[in-house]
Amino acid sequence: VLCVAPMRGAGLGVQEMEEALEAVRRSDVEALTALLDAHPGLLEATGWRENRSYRLLDYACERGSLQAACLLLDRTGGTDIDVRDYYDHTPLMTACSNGRAAVVSM
pLDDT tens digits for 52-73? Predict the structure, then answer.
């Protein structure tokens, strides 16, 4: 279970992040696309679990949600691939450590 931290940016709240995380969990790219269209700041939003920060891309990589990860990378132009979390892990490291070969090989 992810706990959601306060969102940065105008008009973002916990509910939007929770909906986006749920869309990633379900690999519901259509819902995730709609949420990102309505709230582009979600790309920068952070959730927390066990003292570890998560952005949507981190969560997609952890879950092995290949389509969601591709969408998120496309939306950021690939710039999020090197962003490190609280423990200095990149999304790629997260995918590797969780055995998500499809995400690693994309």
Answer: 667 888 888 888 889 999 999 9
Q: How far apart are CA 14 and CA 8, in angstroms?
A: 11
Burial of 82 (0-12, 13-18, 19+ CB in 10 A): exposed
* Cβ within 8 Å of residue 15, ≥6 positions away: none
Q: Cα separations (Å) of 69 from 10, 11, 28, 30, 97?
A: 24, 24, 11, 13, 16
Q: How many whole angstroms from its chain centre is CA 89?
A: 14
Are 64 and 31 spatial neighbours (Cβ–Cβ below 8 Å)? no
Do 47 and 21 meet the contact criterion of CB atoms below 8 Å apart?
Answer: yes
CA-nearest of 102, 41, 37, 44 to 70 is: 102
Give this prediction's pTM: 0.80
